[in-house]
């Protein structure tokens, strides 16, 4: 099932209001991005993945390299309703460095105390020196289940915390500790998308409902940051040739062997640059989009 392409009629850049809210809160909620048919399709893809891969002891699945493992998800990576937010913030010299799909069936009881609060990026958060640390990446979370009520495995975050380097926490992860001040569970419907700054402090609530929690997370960063996903073999897959050039770029399939192109020295060799140029969407008011 093919649902979107970069040839979609319109790409609409992030509005000034969205940019201000994103800079202030560290996240945006996009309502009704996926149609009911799309939700059913992608939900079935996650169901198949859940049935076909080893699961954790609680029955959940956290599967990295989302598109490499489920090529049917590829049209989410440049969806016309969400992808413009990514390049509006990061520009054209980008790829997907980290992605995963999550399936969390209902729990029979709350899990033991464990401190899950974190910023994305791993050692970036130990080794970068500035305060606040740089954004470096953003993430799209496509919700395929109804988490319009709390306690359903909701993305839980602290608005505005993306500019805070450290969050007070327990001396060890298994020590009981109060929920951080200002934390909120994001309530969204199936088909909604949450766009967030990697630095925002976030965690996942326990799913104590009767609904299986399903979500696809796609993380975008600059091409000069290495990809965590397993994408090296993708150009040899039979479905790779059917992807458009921007999709191939996002999955790591564009760039010179010397790595120089990843630095963005040659914009004309980067598909997203030429796509934005052709659409008249390069913007001198925002550094990543300066022509």
From TrEMBL:
Entry keyword Oxidoreductase: yes
Q: Which GO terms describe its molecular function?
A: dioxygenase activity
Which keywords does UniProt give here?
Dioxygenase, Oxidoreductase
- Key word Ribosomal protein present in the record? no
InterPro entries in the cross-refs:
Phytyl_CoA_dOase-like
For this entry, the protein name equals Phytanoyl-CoA dioxygenase family protein
Q: What species is given as this protein's source?
A: Dactylosporangium roseum
Upper taxonomic classification of the species? Answer: Bacteria, Bacillati, Actinomycetota, Actinomycetes, Micromonosporales
